[in-house]
Amino acid sequence: MLTKRIIPCLDVKDGKTVKGVNFENLRDAGDPVELGALYASQGADELVFLDISATLEKRKTMVELVRKVASRINIPFTVGGGISTVEDVSALLDAGADKISINSSAVKNPSLIDALALQFGSQCVVVAIDTRQHEGKHKVHTHGGTRPTDIDTMAWAKEIESRGAGEILLTSMDHDGTKAGFANELTAAISSKAGIPVIASGGAGTMEHFIDVFSTGKADAALAASIFHFREIGIPELKSFLQKASIEVRI
Amino acid sequence: MKIGIVRYNAGNTQSVIYALNRLGIEPLVTDVPEELNACDKIIFPGVGEASTAMQYLKERKLDELLRNLQQPILGICLGLQLMCKHSEENNADCLGIFPLLVKRFPDGDKVPQIGWNSIYNLKSQLFDGIPEQSYIYLVHSFYCEYSEQYGIASTQYQLQYSSALKHRNFYAVQFHAEKSGEVGSMILKNFIEKATWK
Predict the structure, then answer these.
(1) What DSSP element (H or E) covers B67?
(2) CATH code given to domain B3-194
(3) Which of A31, A160, A162, B156 has the CB geometry, 3.0–4.6 Å to A127, for a possible disulfide?
(4) How far apart are CA B190 and CA B198, in angstroms?
């Protein structure tokens, strides 16, 4: 049976991981390659590297990082952050990334999704949606969730699929950082209508939250950052917890 | 031992190169038939679309070369599908090494299938040391029909299909061995060390 995926997300700034990572056994927890390799060895199903560097110049270092990650790590990984052209994607895929993730650039220029799917195949095109409720309605936000748009989240999910996205990475800004659980209702609404996998993100605080997002939320994969980085939840214990709850995971 | 990787217009060779590097192998990546034929073992990877890939292979006369290889060859993902007879993906006639059909998954569950699924009914030296029901990483919308004769592994997604094939020196896997963790590395290592000539 196809398993539910657990995906740690590593924020990378100027080539280093951020978010106060705390790992005793790592030579350099600030090194995205070391940390990624550790997660892979612990049973992470995929990794996401999100570049939050402020400048274009610093972002160029991402290609070099992708090369190092790909040569070291034997599970799939996605790279996101600041990607806005076919050339950006080409460079990252050539360096060994399995998938790329676009967000603000897709909202600004939806035909970028079509262009990427055509040239590289849908399987490597992840479209990230940052969503937040505004007057009771789910609206797409851009620029790290700081800028609201008038776009309805459900409608956008449908549009990106029809344009050739291979997966949806859905982050609820209302839940992100709360540790109060994922946006199960919205995730389920999108995932049950989508013909492509949905990765839920934002709000993970306990192992039960993962059960909820896979069962109630109908998510295909769940992404989290700080709970893994701060070792509040270990990937092996999370997976055996899910297995005991009859959720199919790779162990 | 010289390992060749077939270069063609379907991406993802870099990941295969890295996976071989981790096994201490520096492969030769080429689309020159003579150079490939001089290799001891050949890997035929690929992520892409069947009909355009076939066209590229034909233009370079790689189709004939691949069909007539005597040394072991391992198709991966699209490589497996191209080694079959026909693919529903844009109605492509493929290499016909395996007399099998490649079909699109029905629309019941999500397509493409993306993620980790298990392999069972493991039958070849390719899977030496690999337990039944091991997990491997897959990304695909098209699958090879189940074959009792050529199938050396099966996977279940909406239906049962053959996720690995073997015929004489021809080996193929639907999953991305290069991205399937330790299990995948072991399968590549088995191919390098144990796969036999015609």
Answers:
(1) helix B62-67
(2) 3.40.50.880
(3) A160
(4) 17
Q: Strand pairing of B151-157 and B159-167?
A: antiparallel
Closest CA relative to residue B158, chosen from B169, B142, B177:
B142
Element (H, E) at A155: helix A153-162
Interior/surface letters A132-150, b for 16+ CB within 10 angstroms, e for the rest: beeeeebbbbbeebeeebe
Q: Shortest CB distance from A71 goes to which of B18, B140, B181?
A: B18
pLDDT in tens, A171-180: 999 999 899 9
Model pLDDT for residues A141-185, shown as the tens digit of each residue: 998 888 899 999 999 999 999 999 999 999 999 999 899 999 999
Please give the structure tokens belonging to residue B66: 């691949």
Q: Is A92 exposed, middle or buried (0-12, 13-18, 19+ CB in 10 A)?
A: buried
What gap in Å lies between CA A72 and CA A69, rounded to an integer?
Answer: 5
Q: Residue A166 and residue B59: Cα distance in Å, rounded?
A: 30
The residue among A64, A178, A83, A182 whose CA lies nearest residue A128 is A83
DSSP assignment of A184-229 equals HHHHHHHHHH-SS-EEEES---SHHHHHHHHHTS--SEEEESHHHH
For A93, nearest residue in chain B (alpha carbons): B12
Chain B residue with the nearest C-alpha to that of A77: B179
pTM for the model stands at 0.94
At which residue do the structure tokens 């679309």 appear? B49
Task: Give B-chain residues touching A196 at CB under 8 angstroms.
Answer: 110, 112
Distance CA A59, CA A50 (A): 11
* Residue pair B133/B156 in contact by the 8 Å Cβ criterion: no
Mean pLDDT of A29-35: 86
B140 in active site: no
**Cα separations (Å) of B61 from A88, B25, B65, B170, B186?**
33, 27, 7, 18, 32
Inter-chain CB proximity A124 and B113 less than 8 Å: no
Is residue B166 within 8 Å of B126, Cβ to Cβ?
yes
Q: How far apart are CA B177 and CA B171, in angstroms?
A: 13
What are the residue numbers of the active site of A? 11, 130
What are the domain boundaries of chain B? Answer: 3-194
